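Re-running the complex after MR caught last week's input typo. The corrected sequence lines follow. Everything else is unchanged.
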Amino acid sequence: MSKNRIKISIGERIFDVFNVVFLFALMVVCLYPMLYVLFASLSNGVQLMRHIGLLLRPAGFSLSAYEAVARNEMIPTGYVNTIFIVAVGTTVNIFMSALGAYFLARRDQTIGKAAMIFIVITMFFSGGMIPGYLNVRSLGLYNSIWALIFPVALNTFNMIILKTAFMGIPSSLEESAKLDGAGHLTVLFRIFLPLSKATIAVLVLYYGVSHWNSWFNAFMYIQDRALYPLQLVLREILIVNDTNSMLNVSVDVEQIADTIKYAVVIVATVPILVLYPFLQKYFVKGVMIGAVKG
Amino acid sequence: MKDSAAVSNKKRKTYQQLSYWGKVGRDIATNPVLYLMFLPVVLYYILFCYKPMYGALISFMDYVPGIPFWENEWIGFDNFVRFFNDRNFFRLFKNTLVISFSSIIFGFPAPIILALLLNELKSRTYSRVVQTISYMPHFISIVVICGLIRDFTMNTGVITQFLGIFGFPQVTMLGEPSYFVPLYVISGIWQEIGYGSIIYLAALTNVDQELYEAARIDGANKWKQTIHITFPSITPTIMTMLIMRLGNIMSIGYEKIMLLYNSQIYETSDVISTYVYRVGLLDMDFGYSTAIGLFNSVINLLILLLANKLSYKLTDTGLW
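Corrected-run output:
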C-alpha cells in the first residue's frame, strides 16, 4: 500500500521496521512446528532423544520411522476410509446444498420465507450431543461409515453462501431456458451450477477439509476398527500413545517411538500441506463470500 | 415465476385471493419438480436437526434406553435440579466461563491486530507471504495439533526445554492444572490468528482512501489515523464477529479439550460439554446428560440475544 508519498517521520520508520520484524517472527512461529516435526521424523531415534532444544536439521538421519509407518496396516485403512468419506461426503454435501440453495434462492414461492426460518433456526439451536447420538443409533447408522456422511450431509451456512451466489444469476437466463423447455433440474445443473463454479470450488474445499479433519463423529459412532478414518487412527497414535500395540513390529520400537509419531503426522498432513498453497486463494475467497452475507 | 401466476389466474380463485396454505398448495401444484428437489433438504433437517431437538425431551424424563419413547417417566425439571446440585457444577461452570472469556479477551483482538499490522506493510508481496504462512495452522487437523501440543509440552518436549533457557520449570505442562488455560488460549491464537484476520483485511480494503488523504492534510499521524479512521470503519465487522463469538461462549471447542485434558487437570479443564460427553456416552446417563447439554445451549442462546441487543444499542449493528 504505497499511499505515503509525503515525508515519513522517525516514529513511523521505527514502527515499520518493528512491524516487518514482528511479522517475520509470527511466520517463524507458524511454520516452525511443522518443520520440527519434519526434522524429527527424519531423525535417528536415539539421537533425537538425547537432543535438547530446537532442531534446525534432523538429528542424525534415519528413515526407520517411515519404514515402521509403512508396515502399519491401520494407516492405509484410515487413508482409504477417509478418502471415501471425503469423496462421497463432499459429493453429497454439494448435491444437497445445491438443491437447498436452488429453492431458497427463489423469490416467487409463498413458503420461501417460512422455509428459510425453518432452516436458520437450526443454526442457533440443536438437540445436542446425546440426542444426536441416540438419533444416529435409532436410525441404524451406528458403526456404519454413513454415520459420518448423513448427519453432516448439509451445512446451513455453506448452503446460504450458495444461495447468495444463485441469487446473483440474472433471472432472464432461467426464463429463456424455461421457454426452451428446460425443467428445474436442467436449470439447476446446466445453468446455475456452471455459473457458480467459483462458489462451488469454495464449498468443495470447506466441506472436503472438514471431512478430512473430522474425528469426533467417528469417535462416537464407529466401533469397528476397519472403519476408522485417518484422524481416529492418528488419535490412537498421538493422543492415546499407542504406538507399540499399533505397530505390531518386533524391532525395538521403544527407541523410535517418538520419531514414528512424527512420521505419522507428516504422512497424515502432507496431502493438505501440498494442496494448501494452491487452494489458499479459494479459502480467502470463501471468507469474503461468507462475510458479505454476514 | 410470473407465468405460473398467469396460468393460475384462469382457475376459480386468483392467486392473491387464496389463503396462505392455498397459495402454498398452488405453488406445489404448478411446480411439483421444484418441491421434489427440495424434499431431500427438508428430510435432512427433519431427521438430523429437528428429530434430535425433539429427542432432547428426554432431559425431562427418567430415560431408559430400549423402552418406547413415550413410556418413559416424566420427571419435570429433576435432571436440571440434579445438575445444579452436582458436586462438579461449580467447577464446570467456572471452567467454561474462564476458558471462554480468556479465549475471547486474548484471542479475539489478535486477528484484528494482525490485520491492522498487515495493512501497514509497504510491501504487498511480504504481506501476502505472511498471510499464506499464518493461515496454515488453521488447516492442520485438531488431532494432529493436540498431539503436537502434548508432545511439545512434555517435560522433555521441545517447548518446555526451550522455555527452560529462561528458567521455566521442566514439567509436563498438561499434568499441571495451572498451565491448562494458558496452553489452550495460546495454542488457539496460534491456530486462528492468520485465518481470523482475513475477514478484517477484507473490511480494511473497503475503507475509503480519501479519508486518509484528508486526515494527513489535517496533520493526523498514523496512530491518529488508525484510531479515528481505520478502527471506526471496521467496527461493524468487529461487532458482528464479536456477537457471533459471544453466542458461542458456552460451547467452547470441546473437541480440543477432549484431546488435551486428563483426569489430573479436570480442576481447570473440565467444561460442561466434556462432562456431557462423559456422563452421556461413558456413563450412559442419557436423560441427565441431555439436560446438562440443553441447559448449556439455552444459556448460549440467551447470551447471543443479549449481545445482539447490546450491540444495537451501542453501535447500531447486529446480526439481524
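None of the earlier attempt is carried over here. The beta strands of chain B are 61-62, 73-74. The mean pLDDT of chain B is 87.
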